[in-house]
Write a structure and sequence with these properties.
alpha/beta; globular; Rossmann fold; 5-stranded parallel beta sheet; 6-stranded mixed beta sheet; Hypothetical Protein, Haloacid Dehalogenase-like Hydrolase, Chain: A, domain 2; 2 domains; 35% helix; 14 strands; single chain
């Protein structure tokens, strides 16, 4: 197959476990672009949480963010969003407020955190792992008036929620699913990520390939977590990193290297070597 587009997750896939992109991966992206292959980061991060060296790479034009809620064209500045309506968001937020949980909210292309809950003590209470602790501190916009601000209806892109108790996670998940028009995924233990129905990574990828005139059969998708499965299921070639969950590996045609071993290089040299 003559593959024309690579859709690749960031955290746990293109980025190393330190959350950065290597020079080797950037060089591979350049090589692939010069061969006419479109390289698209597809991430759960909000747009302005993108690592600067990824966002600033001249060989990357399109970005899918907030788990598929946003498709962004760097060249034209066009943004295609599939956000929660203000009314949907208000109902979701009122449910989540009943549980022992902390959340970040993707709003206006940024990820927003409650400044009162950004501490090791609070993070540990809600079982936020070290990677996400650092990510929230480094990339989120902090609001002192978080609850007051989001108690008002907002057209949010995504909510990422960490629960103190698994039993509450499952109960909240069931209640939210019963509302309809919500897709629920996850990127780590104790976490759920909420987006409007139809805003999954796979749906956004399908919209982008239609726009670009690329068939899904000519597309490679690469990921490591549950929130990548929707794009792995529709791509012509689905790849999982070695550090991926078992569920992701089961949905993939092939397992490649660990995210610390340069996924873009591995795809260029081993998958697209011919």
């Amino acid at each position: 197959m003559n593959y024309k587009l690579i859709a690749i997750d960031l955290d746990g896939t293109l980025l190393s476990t330190k959350g950065d992109i290597t020079d080797e991966n950037l060089a591979a992206i350049k090589d692939l672009a010069e061969r006419g292959i479109i390289f698209v980061p597809v991430t759960g991060r909000a747009m302005y949480e993108m690592p600067r060296r990824v966002y600033g790479c001249e060989y990357i034009r399109y970005i899918i963010s907030s788990n598929g809620a946003v498709i962004y064209d760097k060249q034209t500045g066009e943004t295609v969003s599939h956000n929660f309506t203000a009314e949907q968001f208000a109902r979701i937020y009122s449910v989540l407020k009943e549980y022992e949980a902390t959340m970040t909210i993707h709003y206006a292309l940024r990820s927003v955190a409650d400044s009162a809950k950004v501490s090791d003590e609070v993070f540990n209470y809600y079982r936020v792992n070290d990677y996400y602790k650092n990510h929230i501190r480094t990339h989120n916009v902090m609001r002192d008036d978080f609850d007051e601000f989001f108690s008002e209806p907002r057209e949010a892109e995504m909510l990422s929620v960490f629960f103190r108790y698994d039993s509450e996670l499952e109960e909240a998940k069931s209640r939210l699913e019963a509302m309809g028009d919500i897709d629920i995924t996850s990127s780590t233990v104790g976490n759920i990520e909420l987006i409007r129905h139809g805003a999954l990574k796979g749906n956004a990828l399908s919209k982008l390939t239609d726009k670009l005139g690329v068939s899904l059969a000519e597309t490679i998708a690469v990921g490591d977590s549950r929130n990548d499965i929707s794009m792995l299921e529709i791509a012509g070639l689905a790849l999982a990193t070695d550090n991926a969950t078992d569920a992701v590996k089961a949905k993939s045609h092939r397992v490649i290297c660990h995210c610390d071993e340069n996924a873009a290089v591995n795809i260029r040299d081993n998958i697209l070597k011919n």
